[in-house]
């Protein structure tokens, strides 16, 4: 199928589109950014914030002797160019009944391409931290695979979250975790170059969800057959997201010589929000392989079909309510006849499978195709956007 590429080099950036590959830009020159107008708002048109509370001033989490909420978490992923296998391309985490052998954290490197994710307990408590990162493909023009950066960033965030000793303080804030993981990468110097977006959260047992979103990954909060909140992407220009970067010395030298500027944002540039979760909420964190191929309405349809089909959400005289069955459905073996044997993992698999199918369909225009058609009608772009895909689904359950 035809795909889209953002041309990129250290000296200039052009909005010209090609059908050979599809990579997001990692660099730009200020003098050329104007040529992209009005595109800085193009990607943002995909998702609008419906309700969020800026959270630049940390407020402490209140510890409880008995947890109130738990987060039943599943993840699924599929690398670009690889066949999606719902039996193997999955991961399940339960902060009450299941923890992994690797110190309560998943930090492996799955076959997810340049997309990465992490799930971890946050400190010695029932708090959790989880998120996704998407390596910026434009770095490939410099001979750099951003997969090392995105996976390294997730491994660092998981480790930092797990080692927290005072989760009632500001260090449970996602921006703190993101910033320390990024500084760790810079300090160690093992990753020579690359860039990545990130969208991560911490959830506590009192139902407080904190989110930090940098770039064009993002999240949705579903509640009882409705979209309660969905995040705004951050972009400098069309197909050029906010990103953390490691810039090699050679490229820095060229920048000084020719006066160019490389795109490297700061963890402090992330959009930080606070949310209250309720029993039965579904939280979905995903990379742009989802958002570029599936609309919010389509995602709601997938989630509602599964939540109502398995009677986790029920509709009656009092409207839609959360069923008591949700406790069992989100446990291991809660859906015994499925390969993905709990509801949260099944949801993640369904979203990845649908996004994968749409990405390879040349006749079904997704959100990305519609944006290209709007701003570059001469390109005659149709179909999905082939990309790596990564999804984390957390179902919030009130403890019995």
UniProtKB/TrEMBL annotation:
InterPro entries: PPM-type-like_dom_sf, PPM-type_phosphatase-like_dom, PPTC7. SMART domains: PP2C_SIG, PP2Cc. Keywords: Hydrolase, Magnesium, Manganese, Metal-binding, Protein phosphatase. Residues 96-396 form the PPM-type phosphatase domain. It comes from the Eukaryota. Its EC number is 3.1.3.16. Residues 43-67 are annotated as: Disordered. Residues 49-67 have a biased composition (Low complexity). PROSITE patterns: PPM_2 (PS51746). Signal peptide: none annotated. Its cofactor is Mg(2+); Mn(2+). It catalyses: O-phospho-L-seryl-[protein] + H2O = L-seryl-[protein] + phosphate; O-phospho-L-threonyl-[protein] + H2O = L-threonyl-[protein] + phosphate. One of its GO terms (molecular function) is protein serine/threonine phosphatase activity. Transmembrane segments: none annotated. Belongs to the PP2C family. This is Protein phosphatase. It comes from Letharia columbiana. The lineage of its organism: Eukaryota, Fungi, Dikarya, Ascomycota, Pezizomycotina.
